[in-house]
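Worked example 3 (structure in, sequence out).
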């Protein structure tokens, strides 16, 4: 799962990414065994100013592909991220299960690709699959 991912679709349930274009997430191992999370996006247009969110993650439950991600020391608890499905080379479907977000009937979901632009047919099939799993945008 390490490396760069390009956001194709997000649920807009989280602040980072709101109004951003060309959003990427880059995951790499740090010397202390945690995972560096480096997200970028441009504001308003592909040539807009760069927005960066840098965080750290630990593996929560490897059997369920879960990460615990923190972007700030002021964050009261890490956000749970779960890789619902991936083939590691072309796509990933990621969800975050926060009680408040779930209570508001919002799914925090991302469809990611290893390339800046996923083929339209593949993206359409993945979005249908996400809906079939019961997630809403």
């Amino acid at each position: 799962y390490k490396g760069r991912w390009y956001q194709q679709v997000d649920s807009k349930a989280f602040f980072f990414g709101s109004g951003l274009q060309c959003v990427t997430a880059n995951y790499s191992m740090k010397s202390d065994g945690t995972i560096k999370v480096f997200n970028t996006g441009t504001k308003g247009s592909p040539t807009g100013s760069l927005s960066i969110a840098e965080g750290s993650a630990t593996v929560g439950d490897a059997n369920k592909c879960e990460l615990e991600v923190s972007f700030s020391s002021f964050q009261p608890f890490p956000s749970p991220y779960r890789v619902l499905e991936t083939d590691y080379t072309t796509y990933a479907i990621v969800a975050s299960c926060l009680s408040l977000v779930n209570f508001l009937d919002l799914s925090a979901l991302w469809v990611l690709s290893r390339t800046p632009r996923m083929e339209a047919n593949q993206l359409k099939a993945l979005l249908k699959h996400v809906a079939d799993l019961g997630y809403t945008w």
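Notes: The two ends are 24 Å apart (CA to CA). The first strand starts at residue 3 and ends at 10.
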